[in-house]
Amino acid sequence: MVVQHVLDGNQIGLEPTMNLKGYVLGDPRTDPFINDNSLVPFAHRLTLISTELYNSLKEYCGGDYVNINASNTECVTAMNIYNEMVLQINVLNILEPNCKLAKPRKIEGRRSLADLDPIDIPLTELKNGSAYWCREYNHALSGIWANDRRVRDALQVRENTTGVWKRCNATLAYSKNVLSSVPFHQNLTKTSLWALIYSGDHDFSVPNIGTENWIHLLNLTTNEYWRPWFVYGQVSGYTEKFLSSSGDFTLIYATVKGAGHIAPEYKPKEVIR
């Protein structure tokens, strides 16, 4: 949507003109239905669920795992089993542990580190060692660092303008009026831009399958078929190249092998190169 806004501004002569050449999207949640409906086949592809369960889901749910009719008891039952199978999976990267941290003493239960205020996280909880290490510990440390008074002074954060800094602030009040950005992508195929779309292939929040599905909806022509790409002589993922019918617009899609959501966090060397 930002890219479209820039192009619209260029077209009506807004200054300064931006010499836009292309855009990059990493693990983008482009269409909620396409994304969420790809979770079941993704779970099967990565052997999180059995082939028997996957076949039952396809048969009973008719390939729609989002809009489920409560009267369809076979589909509901199969989806309940599916949800149980993936309940304890780390959705950001299925290969990494699903870490939890105890809430402050007065509140019962457990929640993820991401749900806690950085000031509530005792440093003693951030154990160092492969047996206890979780990526959330890095995230928690970033919050502790960003909320340190010396850091805030060095960054010239003005008093009473920003409260506790959070890596992912879920408290912003807004409403969504655009549910899918596929039409924007479709419109951009009429330009001469380049687009790079990449996905971590172990991301269970925005699966690469869903990304591939909406890319195929753009009706582009495959220019280079699925092939591996390499960093330091090792396969780092797979890529395809697509062109518009006019040949002006180019879209390159790439998976990042072993990466989760926010692929550069998991595979920085591969993504940078």
TrEMBL record:
InterPro entries: AB_hydrolase_fold, Peptidase_S10, Ser_caboxypep_his_AS
GO biological process: proteolysis; secondary metabolic process
Recorded GO MF terms: acyltransferase activity, transferring groups other than amino-acyl groups; serine-type carboxypeptidase activity
PROSITE patterns per UniProt: CARBOXYPEPT_SER_HIS
Keywords assigned: Carboxypeptidase, Glycoprotein, Hydrolase, Protease
Similarity comment: Belongs to the peptidase S10 family.
UniProt protein name: Uncharacterized protein
